[in-house]
Design goal:
Blueprint (H helix, E strand, L loop, with lengths): L1 H20 L3 E7 L2 H14 L3 E9 L3 E8 L1
Antiparallel strand pairs: 1-3, 2-3
């Protein structure tokens, strides 16, 4: 009986994490500058009525930025 309760609790926890993660959307942008890439991310977030969190940015010949959009 304890095993069934433990498995049920684990399943509920896993499903709640998956449902919370399903609301986030990952977006990317490229530009010649960090400010330009962030402006593109901000525009995408504003268009969808969401906020954003920058996950990574890399700089070579151009800046590549990835962000997560969330409500």
């Amino acid at each position: 009986m304890k095993t069934i309760k433990a498995m049920s609790i684990a399943a509920v926890a896993a499903l709640s994490l998956m449902s919370a993660a399903s609301f986030a959307q990952s977006v990317t942008a490229t530009s010649l500058t960090l400010d330009g890439a962030e402006a593109k991310i901000a525009a995408q977030a504003q268009q969808q009525g969401q906020q954003y969190k920058i996950l990574e940015a890399s700089n070579g010949n151009v800046v590549h930025m990835t962000a997560e959009l969330y409500k």
